[in-house]
Design a protein that fits this description.
The protein has a four-stranded mixed sheet with strand order 4-3-5-6. Strands 1-2 form a two-stranded antiparallel ribbon. Helix 2 (about 20-40) packs parallel to helix 19, helix 6 (about 120-140) runs antiparallel to helix 7 (about 150-165) and helix 7 packs parallel to helix 10. The model has no long low-confidence stretch (mean pLDDT about 95). It has helices at about 5-15, 20-40, 45-55, 75-85, 100-115, 120-140, 150-165, 170-180, 190-195, 200-220, 235-240, 245-250, 275-285, 300-310, 320-325, 325-335, 345-350, 350-355, 405-420, 425-435, 445-450, and strands at about 65, 70, 295-300, 360-365, 375-385, 390-395. With about 450 residues, the chain is an alpha+beta fold.
Length: about 450
């Protein structure tokens, strides 16, 4: 049987009561994080334009667009919300495979739950957990470095799993939904390389397609059956058949792979985070600024070098150029002592404190590091006065081996909301956080979406 059939059987039988307590708490923490970064990202390039299109098209007011007094058909709400959640590159990452899980699973489940109505908090938690498990398993099983963007390609399957659970699809219909979405699966890294705004929209396209797919499957439309391992299946066509089936299915139903996700401390490509950590640590320890430094040499894997290691260049979208630049983010860390959303606004990117020094940062490929390893990083700093400092890491902040505490996640949520909505009241934020942290007690998730519907006073 194709592995997608095994996933379909598993998903049809999964219940909230099957989830260990630590898995439930992990899912709630990631929901909190994703809502926070989604609020912060709602005004990022591409998001207002997409919202304007959704408003222009209108349609049945089924689902809430985050922090907007606007409801629209579930596929469009899921798309708009996903893009805002991914726009600042502040959402979770699967460090083992360069995959973002929540940005597909959560907005798909949320939009379908609102459209269906009367969905409990337990059902939403179960659906999001299921979506994370499926997409992370597929991403982790792939052996190759990043080629297709897995936040999109793997996200199609995670979004179907999450949305299908909300609709209560049985094994046959879930299987068909996976087959239908496979007809739409796409997502390329070229948009990242070219600094295109469309890069941040690709997981949203997965959400939109997944919602369509589960509704069609519910109505009896059929899809391909050998979705992952067929002669023309996902692994063969997209990943050169370089995958590990044992990783894909290991301890299915016992271990939930969403617990392997990392929370981000900085709003930039995850491949920049190990370097930022090292720069901030050396700055704190030795009181270093960029004016003290002659050169910074960073050694990393091939994937990191290829995607974020090239000399910094400002093109048509400075925010994206900076988010995907190790030289820029490391320079910002040394120059400012923190890396937050404001550091990716164009006026900050073009400041002399950055542009006069960013050329000092050199990124070097280390062929001894696994080509797809995002975490291993070594930094050597040579100062103008002759001092030399070195540091290294194998687990960036937010990784399960170096996790962010719940308190740190709450602080991140507050900072994100304050960035986008300085008028938001402390009382409103406390209510949102309280509602998320007790989500399993909600009889209807509209108790949460009502808070997120555009009024934060």
């Amino acid at each position: 049987m194709d592995s997608i059939g095994i996933f379909s059987e598993f998903l049809a039988g999964l219940r909230y009561e099957d989830l260990p307590e630590d898995v439930v708490e992990n899912t709630k923490k990631f929901i909190m994080d994703t809502i926070g970064v989604g609020i912060a990202g709602q005004h990022a390039p591409g998001c207002p334009e997409l919202l304007a299109v959704a408003k222009q098209w209108g349609g049945t007011p089924e689902a809430t667009v985050l922090m907007q007094r606007f409801r629209c058909p579930a596929p469009w709400a899921g798309l708009v919300n996903s893009v805002s959640m991914h726009a600042l590159d502040f959402d979770d990452t699967l460090d083992e495979s360069a995959h973002h899980g929540m940005v597909s699973a959560f907005p798909a489940a949320l939009a379908v739950a609102e459209a269906k109505g009367a969905v409990s908090g337990k059902d939403l938690i179960c659906a999001v957990t299921a979506g994370l498990d499926v997409s992370c398993r597929i991403a982790m099983s792939v052996k190759r470095p990043l080629s297709w963007t897995r936040a999109a390609t793997c996200g199609y399957f995670g979004a179907v799993a999450a949305a299908g659970k909300i609709l209560g699809l049985d094994t046959e219909k879930m299987w068909n939904a996976f087959g239908i979405v496979y007809s739409q699966t796409a997502g390329n890294v070229q948009g990242l390389r070219d600094g295109a705004v469309s890069k941040r929209m690709q997981p949203g396209f997965a959400v939109k397609s997944a919602i369509l797919s589960v509704v069609l499957a519910q109505k009896g439309v059929t899809g391909a059956q050998n979705v992952l391992e067929g002669d023309y299946g996902f692994f063969k066509l997209y990943e050169g058949n370089e995958f590990d089936r044992s990783v894909l299915l290991q301890d299915l139903g016992k271990t939930f792979m969403g617990t392997r996700l990392s929370l981000k401390a900085y709003p930039s490509c995850r491949m920049t985070h190990a370097g930022i950590d090292l720069a901030l640590a050396l700055k704190r320890e030795h009181s270093l600024g960029m004016s003290d430094i002659e050169t910074v040499r960073i050694t990393c894997s091939k994937m990191v070098y290829d995607l974020v290691g090239k000399p910094f260049e400002i093109r048509s979208n400075p925010q994206i150029d900076a988010q995907f630049s190790l030289p820029y983010t490391v320079t910002a860390a040394f120059a400012r002592g923190d890396v937050f959303i404001e550091d990716f606004e164009e006026n900050r990117i073009r400041k002399p404190e950055i542009l006069d020094h960013v050329g000092k940062v050199q990124v070097i490929l280390d062929p001894g590091i696994d080509p797809k390893d995002m975490m291993q990083c070594r930094m050597e700093v040579k100062c103008r006065d002759g001092r030399v400092f070195t540091a290294s890491t194998s687990a960036a902040s937010g990784n399960p081996l170096n996790p962010l505490s719940v308190d740190a996640c709450v602080q991140k949520f507050v900072k994100c909301v304050r960035y986008a909505m300085p008028e938001a009241s402390d009382e409103w934020m406390a209510r949102v956080l309280y509602t998320i942290r007790r989500m399993e007690t909600l009889e209807n998730i509209q108790q949460l979406t009502g808070l997120l519907s555009g009024h934060a006073g």
